[in-house]
Design brief:
With 239 residues, the protein is α+β, with helices and mostly antiparallel strands. It is built from 6 helices and 12 strands. It has 2 domains: 191 residues, Cyclophilin-like (Cyclophilin), CATH 2.40.100.10; 34 residues, no CATH class.
Length: 239
């Protein structure tokens, strides 16, 4: 998911999103800032290049975390690949086998980007994990991506309280008495839901992001020329 076609990020959309960078919240740190919590679930992702451990934020994005953990429990990720790697941006996986067959998924999860950020969740900075989706906010299923840069243009814009919202400033202009639904469902504002971060194995992420890419399977570009396989994903700590 993340961008069309076939739920894949294409460069044209990447350029379009980059142009929106000045329209969303600026980031305040170079790395993920949410503190580790002893009761946060952790997932070990074992790949053919090494292991990484993700810490998840159920207090910030409960539905998203529950969705991801269900896919882990169902062994959905076992045997899938990181099929999309874009230098200076992100690495994406969780949806395709090494034969480039798209795995079936459950119904999409409700988008929680704005509410997660409003609760003090992380922005899309280096090492954070977010849900991939199409241009429809509520379309994320199993695919996820790991930020390998500080991608402020992917951050949600938090909507102030109230319905209608008494005052909302966007792109230098202030709007008053705006129906809340108009803001919460606006594709330009919802961003991408960060639901965790890499707490071990960033060296593995660095290996993946450094692999040369090209065309393969149904994808015209950005596919690692050395296949990166998720051998298994398992919960090693849960709340």
């Amino acid at each position: 998911m993340f961008f069309a076609p076939s739920s894949i990020l294409n460069r044209a959309m990447h350029v379009l999103l980059a142009s929106l960078a000045c329209l969303v919240l600026s980031f305040g740190a170079a790395y993920a800032q949410s503190p580790n919590k002893a009761d946060n679930p952790r997932v070990k992702i074992s790949t053919n290049l090494g292991d990484m451990v993700l810490e998840l934020y159920p207090d910030k994005a409960p539905k998203t975390v529950a969705n991801f953990l269900q896919y882990v429990n169902d062994h959905h990720y076992d045997g899938t690949i990181f099929h999309r790697v874009i230098a200076g941006f992100m690495i994406q996986g969780g949806g395709y086998t090494k034969a480039y067959a798209e795995k079936p998924t459950r119904a999409p999860v409700v988008h929680e980007g704005q509410s997660a950020l409003a609760k003090g969740g992380d922005k899309n900075v280096i090492g954070t994990v977010a849900m991939a989706r199409t241009s429809e906010p509520n379309s994320a299923t199993s695919q996820f991506f790991i930020n390998i840069a500080d991608n402020a243009f992917l951050d949600p814009t938090v909507v102030p309280p109230g319905d209608p919202v008494p005052s909302f400033t966007y792109n230098g202009r202030t709007y008053t008495n705006v129906p809340r639904a108009n803001l919460e469902n606006n594709p330009k504002l919802v961003g991408y839901t960060v639901f965790g971060k890499v707490i071990q194995g960033m060296d593995v992420v660095d290996k993946i992001k450094s692999i040369p890419t090209g065309a393969s399977g149904p994808f015209p570009s950005d596919v690692p020329k050395t296949t990166v396989i998720i051998n298994s994903a398992s919960i090693i700590k849960s709340s």
